[in-house]
């Protein structure tokens, strides 16, 4: 289901989605390229940011291109296997993002609260293991939710009241009321997400406590500028996902369902490069250097 049946509104939504897609692709690709080739940015924080940018790149490509094409072609169909693949990828990437945000909060906690032990604790091998476990946890969650959702009998002719295949809306289309397996999967994922949230909140409590004890105002400002964007992205992502998956199902789907889904699928991947990475002085300096090399042939110009 699209956002509107009126052709000019479809065109407007198409242009908005296309603009969001271009912003997300440009920002995340820039970060991936710069973090890969700039040796000065090869530290744990930027290592995890590169993984987050790659994940966000995949996230928007799973959802937005299909939505844009549907609006342009006035089409609203998706194959069963296409729907299964979309559900798997959306859930996998969302759960991986939650795990990565948790790991990144721990990285900031160690960097600010234990700066002298940072290089010892956040070794290269440890960072690789954390990133690997994050991706694996997302993949396992994706398989679990996909299997439990599509093991239920679904009507042959269906209208998904969402602009992509979303599990809560798919469950409404089932011919069976036996949702126990998927309810169990949602409960497990919700519990793990809550544990991640508690871990992140506890990390930031320690971070803010340490920052407030810094005598230098500049030091406080620098620490807060690093942490607040991370906390903002996490709050928007987790809050919108919780509303989408935990709120009671309604007989008549509302526009609110569409808006909430946009906030946990489209907004975070678009905002992450802007408020979390591109505001960073080191990243902006690296971009400026590479732009100088690209246009003038020397970083000293």
UniProtKB/TrEMBL annotation:
Q: Where are the transmembrane segments?
A: 12-35, 47-68, 80-101, 179-202, 223-246, 258-278
Q: Can you give the residue ranges of the G-protein coupled receptors family 1 profile domain?
A: 27-276
Pfam families (UniProt xref)? 7tm_4
**Is Membrane there in the keyword field?**
yes
Q: Where in the cell is it found?
A: Cell membrane
Q: What is its main location?
A: membrane
| UniProt membrane topology term | Multi-pass membrane protein
Superkingdom of the source species: Eukaryota
* Gene3D superfamilies hit by this protein: Rhodopsin 7-helix transmembrane proteins
> Which keywords appear in this protein's UniProt record, sorted alphabetically?
Cell membrane, G-protein coupled receptor, Membrane, Olfaction, Receptor, Sensory transduction, Transducer, Transmembrane, Transmembrane helix
What is the similarity comment for this entry?
Belongs to the G-protein coupled receptor 1 family.
Query: What protein am I looking at?
Result: Olfactory receptor
Natural source organism: Galeopterus variegatus
Lineage, opening ranks: Eukaryota, Metazoa, Chordata, Craniata, Vertebrata
Point out the gene that encodes the protein.
LOC103604959
């Amino acid at each position: 289901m699209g956002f509107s049946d009126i052709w000019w509104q479809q065109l407007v939504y198409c242009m908005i989605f296309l603009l969001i897609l271009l912003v997300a692709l440009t920002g995340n690709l820039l970060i991936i390229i710069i973090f890969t080739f700039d040796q000065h940015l090869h530290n744990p924080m930027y290592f995890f940011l590169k993984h987050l940018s790659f994940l966000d790149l995949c996230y928007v490509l799973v959802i937005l291109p299909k939505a844009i094409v549907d609006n342009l072609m006035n089409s609203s169909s998706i194959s069963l296997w296409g729907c299964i693949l979309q559900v798997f990828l959306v859930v996998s990437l969302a759960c991986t993002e939650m795990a990565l945000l948790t790991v990144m909060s721990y990285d900031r906690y160690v960097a600010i609260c234990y700066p002298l032990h940072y290089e010892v604790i956040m070794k290269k091998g440890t960072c690789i293991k954390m990133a690997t476990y994050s991706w694996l946890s997302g993949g396992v969650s994706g398989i679990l939710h996909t299997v439990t959702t599509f093991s239920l009998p679904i009507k042959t002719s269906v209208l998904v009241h969402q602009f992509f295949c979303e599990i809560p809306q798919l469950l409404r289309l089932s011919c069976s009321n036996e949702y126990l397996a998927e309810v169990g999967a949602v409960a497990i994922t919700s519990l793990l997400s809550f544990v991640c949230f508690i871990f992140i909140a506890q990390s930031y409590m320690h971070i803010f406590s340490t920052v407030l004890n810094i005598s230098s105002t500049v030091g406080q400002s620098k620490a807060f500028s690093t942490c607040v964007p991370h906390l903002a992205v996490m709050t928007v992502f987790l809050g919108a996902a919780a509303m989408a998956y935990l709120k009671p199902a309604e007989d008549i789907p509302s526009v609110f369902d569409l808006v909430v889904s946009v906030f946990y699928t489209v907004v975070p991947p678009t905002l992450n490069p802007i408020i979390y990475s591109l505001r960073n002085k080191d990243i902006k300096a690296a971009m400026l250097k590479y732009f100088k090399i690209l246009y003038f042939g020397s970083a000293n110009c």
